[in-house]
Amino acid sequence: MLIQFRKLTTSDHPLQFHQTVDVSRAVKGRKDIASVQPLEVELMAKPSVAGSVEVRGRLHGGLELKCSRCLKPVSEHLDIPFHEVFQPVEDPEAVQADDDDTIYVTGESVDLTPYVEEAFLLHLPLAPVCSEDCKGLCPSCGKDLNEGSCNCDTEVIDPRLAGLKDFFK
Questions:
Q1: Is the pTM of the predicted complex or chain greater than 0.85?
Q2: Which segments of 11-161 does DSSP mark as H helices, in order?
Q3: Which contiguous run of DSSP H or E holds residue 10?
């Protein structure tokens, strides 16, 4: 997905993008994500009078994560808003940014794929759960506590008083 600034500024109509983007490379190596579907990207690039290009739209996709408590699969559907403003300049390092929302780029075009991947990664659930009342796994034996309790000793003893535990025996 390339935006070519010269073509966009001479056009009367905004550019529209309806594509799919494979984001599996962006999540490669993550053990909490079992599978990811390609993102459906619907974006519109519109030039401004100042020479910048505003890109708005939505990203839709699905993925299968592992529950952060019990490790069962959890399906999630993501509906991500996308908004970026690109300003072509000769030297992005020399520009003192008054507006933190503008991305300064060099060249005749900009590839939107890294920005789409970044928006996807920023909207991933932090700690997905299969249900709000998920009990998780026993920290001692690893049994799924949603299926029943285990026989592990769950008594919590303050480590400062642990020496007194055997005192009364």
A1: no
A2: 113-122
A3: helix 5-10
